[in-house]
Known about the structure:
Blueprint: H1 10-19, E1 33-39, E2 45-50, H2 58-66, H3 76-80, H4 96-113, E3 115-121, H5 127-137, H6 157-167, H7 171-191, E4 213-220, E5 228-236, E6 242-248, H8 259-262, H9 275-286, E7 290-293, H10 297-309, E8 317-320, H11 321-328, H12 340-347, H13 356-374, E9 382-384, E10 413-415, E11 422-428, H14 431-436, E12 453-454, E13 466-469, E14 476-478, E15 480-481, E16 486-487, H15 493-499, E17 507-514, E18 517-523
Parallel strand pairs: 4-7, 7-8, 12-15, 13-18
Antiparallel strand pairs: 1-2, 1-3, 4-5, 5-6, 9-10, 11-17, 13-14, 15-16, 17-18
Amino acid sequence: MKQNMSIPTATEILALLRTATPQPTSEAPRAARGIYGLFDHTGTFRYIGSTSSRAETFYKRIHQRHRTGSENTSHYFSFMYNTGRLWRRRNDPATKSDGDIAKKLRNAFIAQHCGAVWVPLPDHADISGLEAQVIALAPAEMIAWNRLGMEPYEEPTTLVDALIEELRLSPVERAALCRQLRRFRGGAQAAAPVIPEPFSGSLPMLPEGPFRFFALDVETANHDRGSICQVGLACVRPDNQIESWVALVDPGTDRWVFTWLHGITADMVKGAAGIEEVLALLEKRLEGVPVYQHSGFDRSAIRAACAAVGRAEPNWKWQNSITVARGAWPELKGNGGHGLASLKQHLGLCFEHHDAGEDARAAAEVVLRAENGAKGVEEVFEVIEVGEHIVPSSPVPDDHPRRERRSQENETVFMRPVSTEIVVGRSVLTQGNLDNNHFYLREFISAFPSEVIGGSNKASAAPSTLTIHWGGVASIATDIDGSKKIFRDRSWVRTFFQRNAARSGDTVEIVETAPRSYHVKLVRA
């Protein structure tokens, strides 16, 4: 700054701060110093500070320290928004990967919803002295954050939900945020730092027992069931409290088919443990205690992974939470089924689908909810021999009766039974359909229940909806526009066409899998 630049008084600086329009933190000047103010997500002036050090500029102090710094007393945005799904505990190796995702979301939240104002001052000004004078003149609400005058905010849930959707976070990232929320709500004991055992290397430390049962889930990189890229474990204590454990696994493959489903990529598993190290950690700990899976896929994946590395399958007491669910809620047969997605809705479960840790926890919760009415149910696996059809060529949703992947040669696969499916109709695509992201149901609209067929606009929507499973992370609830004879919600159709490389002349096939539940797939011309 030039020496002859005039220096405003403290009163003038306060007036300038009060009348300035808040700007995003990223707009803070990179080559200026002085006094600044911070605004919270509601647009309220909350803090006055300064760049008293000659080494700091507005940009470095506001955007790089207050917004992205560690959660201590000098980084006020980081401190005030270290809450809910935005929460992390610094230097906790047991939760580092989840905490890094929470911090990344917090940084994005502050950049989008908070702001700052600033008054540049020359380098020869007594910036620290002026800051003290301005703070002394400021009303209490403008310095509510100063000297930790406020507790961190409660999570602005609606804004965070919208940001998660805007950033298109993967199921893995969303699951990490859910775990951080549980840790935040668990208080100091749940948040205490844990030093991993030396044996675990790149793996998180397993919770200490005793446990009366476990639930296990895996995700795979491709149709090879042995290509495990994530393992999740829910550990159920005698008092029914659940401790979650989840780890990424390097499957040692270049074929990543299911990234779109679970969000795990080859880059994410670089440096992660291989399945041999994971099994070495889990094998003895899980021995002798029931290990639940939700379907037969998870055990068959462990078996395939063991075969691939030339080791014996762990001697675990496998059970199936679907069997328990069938005994507890028989009314779901033919009415959504007993997949995790259906049980999530029926039981009001809260978890992020397609993350191994979250799905394992959900399976454990299913067993806990059902135990009073279904205790003692013996496991019965339906065995499908080699050569039988397991998976259609197009992806299917996780709660579909045929979630299991393609079988491998000369191997038996444990699976749940395949339910009856009815082809409702087929719609041949035109270029107009592709350009406008829809396909017609006119030739077979009478096959749908009358209560899901509405009028030509949202105001005249049908009283009921049907569920569309199309291969995306989330299914779609929609009615039918009876005038245009198309599904009213078309938000998913463009992605469906793109993922399947749809062309004019291809056919969309609609299959009824349960009452008001349909699977949509593309058939090549």
